[in-house]
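Researcher: Good morning. I'm working through a list of sequences from a screen, and I'd like to move beyond sequence-only analysis. For each chain I'm collecting a predicted structure so we can compare shapes side by side. This is the next one on the list. No need for commentary yet; just the structure.
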Amino acid sequence: MRHMFCLCVLSLLLSGCAGPKPILYPNPRYQEVGADAAQADIQDCMVLAKEAGASPSEGKTAQVSTNTVGGGAVGSAAGAVGGAILGHAGRGAMVGAASGATAGFLRGLFKRSPPSAAFTNFVDRCLRDRGYEPTGWQ
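Model: Good morning. C-alpha cells for this chain:
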C-alpha cells in the first residue's frame, strides 16, 4: 500500500513538471528535419529564452496567493448564505472563508503555472527564425 502511494505521488510530481511546449505545424522544414530534430530545436530555443532572462513560468507565489484569496472570498460568500439559511450567517461565513481559502491554496499549489508571455514569444520567434511554424502551446 505504501509503495502504491509513493508511486502515485511521484507520477503526480513528474506530470506537474512537464510544462507546456509549442506545437509545430508540419511545414516543409518540420518534414525535412523530422520530429526528433524539431524537439531538439524546441529545447534549444527554450534554453536560449532562459539565458536571455525570460522566465519559463509565471510566478508561482502570485498564482497561489491569488487562488487563496479568491477561494476565501467565494467560500465566505457561500458560507454566509448557507449560514443565513440556518440562522448563523457569521459562523457560516467564517467556515466558508476558511474552507474556500484552503481549497484555493491547494488548487494554486498543484496547478501548473502557464509559461510567461515573454518566454513563449521568445521561443516562438526563435523557432520561426529556424524555419518552423509554431501554432500554439500545449
